[in-house]
Amino acid sequence: MKQFTSVHDVEDLESLVREALVLKQHPYAHESLGKHKTLGLIFLNPSLRTRLSTQKAAQSLGMNVMVMNMGQEGWALETQDGAIMNGTTVEHIKDAAAVMGQYCDVLGMRSFPKLQNVEEDYSEEILKKFIQYANVPFVSLESATRHPLQSLADLITITEHAPKGRRPKVVLTWAPHVKALPQAVPNSFAEWMCAADVDFVITHPEGYELDPQFTNGATITYNQQEALEGADFIYVKNWSTFQPNYGEVLTQDASWMLTNQHLTNTNNAKVMHCLPVRRNVELSDEILDGPNSLVVHEAANREFAAQAVLKRLLEGIQ
Ligand code: CP
After folding, report:
1. Ligand 1 binding pocket mutation candidate from 42, 43, 142, 238 (most atoms within 8 A of CB)
2. What pLDDT, in 10s, does the model give residues 248-266?
3. In Å, what is the CA distance from 53 to each residue of 63, 216, 300?
4. How far is the CA of 299 from the centre of ligand 1 (A)?
5. What superfamily does domain 150-299 belong to in CATH?
6. Matching CATH number, 3-146+302-315, of 3.90.78.10, 3.40.462.10, 3.40.50.1370, 3.40.190.10
């Protein structure tokens, strides 16, 4: 593997999930693989889980890890080709990425969308330029439109808890939030679920349709109650609008926030969320602190998702 930016970079999904589950049992089985190899983790935006789990995963493979909170500690980056840099930006991404590629054998970067211009965000310009100029194996730590390490951890979690002998029903439900959030997590989750061996349903209020390139193959309904019927897994996430008006909050309808009452007609559904979560806005305390919540387990699996991906990237450069 040379890069991990979406499900399309994975040749065999089942084999990657299996590998992650084996690593979970034997995290130090490949502790020499990354010896004398350096991973650079570049954050243009905040993180708890992605930063710590990826760092730990790399260390278990014997890698050295350097973390840079570029958004706070680095020079302000210019991304436009041909820019006359007489404003606030100090360093062009082509120079910064090329230099980081000299120090690191593998690089990861997190870059959120600005939610102002759909074409700009969905072109993934920053991600693509960084990969191009760094010119080393690359892992996305969440980009404008996708969060593949999260989605892999989600699939690992579903695989561990899936009912035996049948395809699980997985429901992605929109949840309320106080501010406009990116579509990266739901886009990515949808894309991975459409590629996985599950029955997949998406439910959201009218106006919150995701980009169809990520949802092809899913059943989509505005009726949350109907969607949740018989669910084995419910993935809760807020997102802002994709089209026609990009990055907006149309409603904060609290009836979309999951409570125990919402689980009544499910198959005793397990509830997932990528975290961080706004308690009692996106998800109720009773769900998060109750027996159906998988959120901490899911966050724990971020480590083994990252380890499986880093192992594949390292194998590609041995
Ligand atoms: N789920 C997730 O990516 O968490 P962080 O933003 O804390 O990394």
Report:
1. 142
2. 999 999 999 999 999 999 9
3. 14, 30, 8
4. 9
5. Aspartate/ornithine carbamoyltransferase (3.40.50.1370)
6. 3.40.50.1370
